[in-house]
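Researcher: I'd like a structural prediction for the single chain below. Treat it as a standalone chain; there are no partners to consider.
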Amino acid sequence: MKTLYIERSTGEGRNGDWAESLDLDGVERIVVGTGPGSFAGIRSALAFAQGYALGSKCEVLGLPSPCAVAAQVYADGADFPLAVVGDARRGKFWIALFDGLKLVCPVFQVEKDLLEMRVPLSAKVATSDESRIGALLAETFAERYIGGVKSTDEGLRLFAEANPSILTPEPLPIYLNPAVRT
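Model: Treating it as a single chain, here is the predicted structure.
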């Protein structure tokens, strides 16, 4: 079964140019990163997948975007618990905890002052938000911080193939905060 993997939680390709290069010939399933991350990137990827599925009758499944980071860390032979941490804005962070290619609990959000306490002492820490929070994570977690790891289509593929039970039908974006209205 030909599967297309789309991960846009980092906001790259917000203008939709990424869709022009997709090989859609014979696609029977699309797996989309559901975030958390860039609102525009996640929504555009989900909208594309759902729109394409309407015409082609292919299946659309979702996978939390931190899984793509974890898959890339573990692909290098890592053997430790992992916390993937991201910037949830407004002084908050999101955390996804992994034990190998198993998401230990759903993505959750914490205040900055609770960040260190909510990451298990045995866990290494990685982020897909290196430019925004890398320095803070390096200072907070010292040698436990392994750096920035880009969330990619290939990472989604690796995690989905290793742990297909986590794929969700009719995916929705992971929203950590309510919409802001002015």
